[in-house]
Amino acid sequence: MMSVSRDAAPSASEPLRVFVVEDESLVAMDLEERLTKMGYVVCGISDSGEEALTAITGQAVDLVLMDIHLRDGVDGVDVASALRRVSDVPVVFVTAHADETTLRRAGQAEPFGYVLKPFDERELRATIEMALYRHRAETRLHKVERWLSTTLSSIGDGIIATDDQRCVTLINPLAEMVTGWTKSEAVGRLLEEIYPVYGEAEVNETFAAYSEAMRTGVTIHLGEGKYLRSREGRRIPVDDSISPIRDDANQITGCVIVFRDCTQSRQIMEERRRLETKMQETQRLESLGVLAAGIAHDFNNLLTVVTMNTSLAKTYVTKDSPVMKSLMDIQGSAERAAELCSQMLAYAGKSRVVKEPLCINLLTRDTIQLLTTAISKKALLSLDLGETVPKVQGDRSQLQQVIMNLVINASESLQDLPGKIKLKTRYLHVPQAQLDLCRSGNTLPEGDYLMIEVKDTGEGMPQDVQARIFDPFYTTKFTGRGLGLAAVLGIIRSHGGDLAVESIAGAGSTFRIYLPALVEPEMPTPPSYHESSGWLATGHALIVDDEAAIRAAAHAVLCHLGFQVELAEDGMRGLEKILRQAVNYRVVLLDLTMPNLDGREVYKLVRERMPRLPIIMMSGYSSHQALDLLEEGVPTAFIQKPFTVEAIREKLAALLG
Q1: Is the pLDDT reported for residue 353 higher than 60?
Q2: Are the C-beta atoms of residues 421 and 456 closer than 8 Å to each other?
Q3: Strand pairing of 63-67 and 41-46?
Q4: 617 and 637 in contact (C-beta within 8 Å)?
Q5: Edge-to-edge, what's the strand order for the sheet holding 114-116?
Q6: What is the DSSP letter of 86?
Q7: Pairing with 401, which of 52, 187, 283, 595 sits 20 to 30 Å away (CA)?
Q8: With 70 as the cut, is the pLDDT of residue 625 above it?
Q9: How confident is the model at residue 8 (pLDDT cuts 50, 70, 90)?
Q10: Can you tell me the distance from the alpha carbon of 371 to that of 365, in angstroms, rounded to the nearest whole number?
Q11: pLDDT number for residue 526
């Protein structure tokens, strides 16, 4: 049972309650009389130590007057010590012995004062009042200490204090947890042992920071990129400061270190930087994609003039004419240029995509047969195809181009030296952390994907090269290499997949493609073909295009095919000619990309008035630009620039019959 003591001074209605422990009855009676005169209340008298302990702990007592020598054999010092363990009631010793031995023993019980027998009343009163004052002061101090201890325990930072010799004097629980040192182990040890902080130089910087704070008298920050090496050897990133501690005379008596475990904040910061880098990369790729698509579109317009005029010119010369060879060379070069434009559109994700359920393993085997003459003779190409690989929904030619480009890139990395290239397919679960490292800009969720992996033992790539390998026309080998990896990235992006690269300079590279797999693939509809080699037409045709050279070339081609041809240089003129109906057009060739009023708007306005008018839409972009306009049962077709006489003849024959 705990005794109750009061912190406040006794008032008139509540005087100080004193308990007397004295084995001489006359002395006890004298004390009681004197105390009562002074205005105190004697709440109990006992001549036995055991009895006193029981009585004191059972009531509210403000102060105990304790004789050191008690006749029952229980020493007053022992009673006071026992009382201190269970109560904070102040004890004042009353003794006739003032020898050094007695006083030393009495001091072990931490009394609040001594009164020597025989005692003077003023001395007794002064001793009691001083004991009460000291008790109140200690009580307030204990409250402050408890508040400080609670605050230090609750604060979210680690705190370590030292004296002016760098010895630890205080360490809060959080600092104990982070450093690995308990308070009992840390106190008295040197700061640099308990709190060793390192930087890039791997040198303990704590002593230097402490000395700087002591010398300058200002707070020192250790700076970014520092880590604490805990007692167990863990590297813990920290953000900290060392500040001098000053006494009442403004003299520096030590330092206090305030630090924070930055593991989580550093991880958040790194993740933010990674996301920002990925966002910047995505924005850069999108910008390059827009640029590539625009260039491809304009280039296709130029090639349209070449291919149409060349194919038309071929119809006017015989096969054995020397001019025919020149025309064939021109057409071949134009077709190769058109293929480059197709790669640029693939990089931009705007190429024509004809998706169907594909078996990647079969596609891979077919592609490898095409690669035997394209890769280095010193390269050993091996296949590791998964046994349970599902189909994917994809464009056959584009995915074939992806595999070819990656394998050819791997072959070139061997630098005509002996090496290995391994092409592997698997259907596997891909964790989110792995997908977050991909490069296409698509944000794929964790899940099951079909993986195509191309791994080589070539020269590898440093980080600066890896950051640019998907840029159009970027190469470390020779100029004019083209859009191989850039087109790969665009194709994978348009297929809803993603691509990751792992490479170490001098240790080879690994490209991994992740594609969504089909659970229940639909069978593709076989394409229908229309024989149109000798087809000729009659009637009027209108060509609407803002490029004069294209209008001229298309005019010659359609005239060659039997049409009476009219021209319109923009969407407004074309719409006016169509809606005026001065001529009953059998077909309209309509460019989709024009200034002011583009082909899409013209098409929609015409369809409101003339739903059965045959229209062929033309574009330097792919057919995806017009997919929403190709309605079932409506006489509409699409042809991608550049095209030949044979291509437009086939399109017209299929549309007009």
Answers
A1: no
A2: yes
A3: unpaired
A4: yes
A5: 41-46, 17-21, 63-67, 91-95, 114-116
A6: H
A7: 283
A8: no
A9: very low
A10: 10
A11: 43
pLDDT (tens digit per residue) in 477-489: 533 344 567 778 8
- Asked if pLDDT for residue 426 goes beyond 90, the answer is yes
Mean pLDDT of 411-438: 88
> pLDDT value at position 373?
63
pLDDT at 589 > cutoff 90: yes
Alpha helices in 315-348 (DSSP H): 322-348
Which H or E element spans position 466? helix 463-466
In DSSP notation, 482-502 reads -SHHHHHHHHHHHTT-EEEEE
Query: How many CB atoms lie under 10 A from the CB of residue 317?
Result: 13
Each residue's pLDDT tens digit, 542-587: 999 998 888 888 898 899 889 999 999 999 999 999 998 888 899 9
Q: Where are the beta strands (DSSP E) in 476-613?
A: 498-503, 509-515, 540-544, 564-568, 585-591
- Rg (Cα) of the chain, in Å, rounded? 47
The Cα–Cα gap between 47 and 20 comes to: 8
DSSP state of 240: E
Burial of 372 (0-12, 13-18, 19+ CB in 10 A): exposed
Give the strand pairing for 509-515 and 564-568.
Answer: unpaired
Among 653, 656, 643, CA closest to 530: 653
Rounded Cα distance, 374 and 364, in Å: 15
Are the CB atoms for 654 and 530 separated by under 8 Å? yes
- Nearest one of 604, 411, 610, 582 to 511, comparing CA atoms: 411
Residue 88 token pair: 């904070």
Tokens of 603: 């098409």
**CB-based contact 410:421 (threshold 8 Å):** yes
Tell how strand 235-246 and strand 227-229 pair up: antiparallel
The token duo for 419 is: 């090496």
Backbone angles phi, psi at 255, to 5 degrees: -140, 160
Residue 145 CB partners (closer than 8 Å, separation 6+): none
Residue whose C-alpha is closest to residue 309's, from 547, 554, 565, 534: 554
- The closest alpha carbon to 228, from 199, 201, 200, 207, belongs to 199
Residues 27 and 533: their CA atoms lie apart, in Å, by 139
Residue from 59, 108, 117 nearest 85 by CA: 108
**Confidence band, pLDDT 50/70/90 cuts, at residue 462:** confident
pLDDT digits (tens, 9 = 90+) for 44-92: 888 887 788 888 887 888 898 888 777 766 777 888 888 888 778 888 8
Q: What is the pLDDT of residues 52-62, one digit of tens each?
A: 888 888 788 88
Give the predicted TM-score (pTM) of the model. 0.40
CA 17 to chain centre: 68
Greatest pairwise CA separation for the chain in angstroms: 151
Helix or strand run (H / E) with residue 256: strand 252-261
Q: Is the peptide bond before 462 cis (omega within 30 degrees of 0)?
A: no
Q: In this model, does residue 523 exceed pLDDT 60?
A: no
A 10 A CB-CB count for 412 gives: 21
What's the CA gap between 173 and 36, in Å, rounded?
49
d(CA 482, CA 467): 17
| 367-411 confidence digits (pLDDT tens) | 776 676 667 778 888 889 998 889 999 888 788 888 888 888 888
